[in-house]
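Need residues for this backbone.
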């Protein structure tokens, strides 16, 4: 039985943020990491702890997104397997190799797409988890002002917004 390697999903997603030469693209890193972290910080600073109504919307959005992406990753995986089969047929069968370059490119694209969709599934799951945690925070504003509720509430809100 295989286990999901969360760190592996994150690292493989990070490695897809490069061009054909392997150079990391700062624009991709900015869009996928810096912008969400900055927006989360601004939202937490401006609005404070996430409201349960927003958390409810995030739970619904995350659950629907996860389900849709799970079916997408299965379709992508099937296409990748078909491409691998075509490549092995060409190599083993001594067939014309004129399509081999495009098939290898397609295989790489499918692999990167799989990594990116797996990362999106992971972030959707994280979004749902942190949004559900928001529900367990006290409703009373006086209780929320106590440091042992306030600090974790801001951290969970920040992580949910970041997801």
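Answer:
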């Amino acid at each position: 039985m295989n286990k999901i390697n969360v760190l592996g999903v994150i690292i493989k997603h990070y490695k897809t943020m490069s061009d054909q030469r392997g150079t990391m693209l700062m624009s991709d890193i900015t869009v996928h990491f810096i912008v969400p972290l900055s927006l989360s910080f601004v939202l937490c600073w401006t609005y404070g702890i996430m409201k349960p109504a927003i958390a409810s919307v995030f739970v619904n959005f995350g659950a629907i997104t996860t389900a849709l992406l799970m079916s997408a990753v299965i379709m992508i995986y099937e296409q990748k397997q078909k491409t691998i089969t075509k490549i092995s047929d060409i190599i083993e069968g001594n067939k014309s190799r004129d399509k081999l370059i495009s098939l290898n490119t397609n295989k790489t694209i499918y692999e990167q797409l799989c990594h990116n969709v797996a990362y999106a599934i992971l972030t959707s799951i994280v979004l749902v988890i942190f949004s559900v945690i928001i529900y367990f925070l006290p409703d009373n504003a006086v209780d929320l002002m106590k440091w042992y509720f306030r600090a974790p509430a801001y951290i969970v809100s920040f992580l949910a917004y970041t997801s």
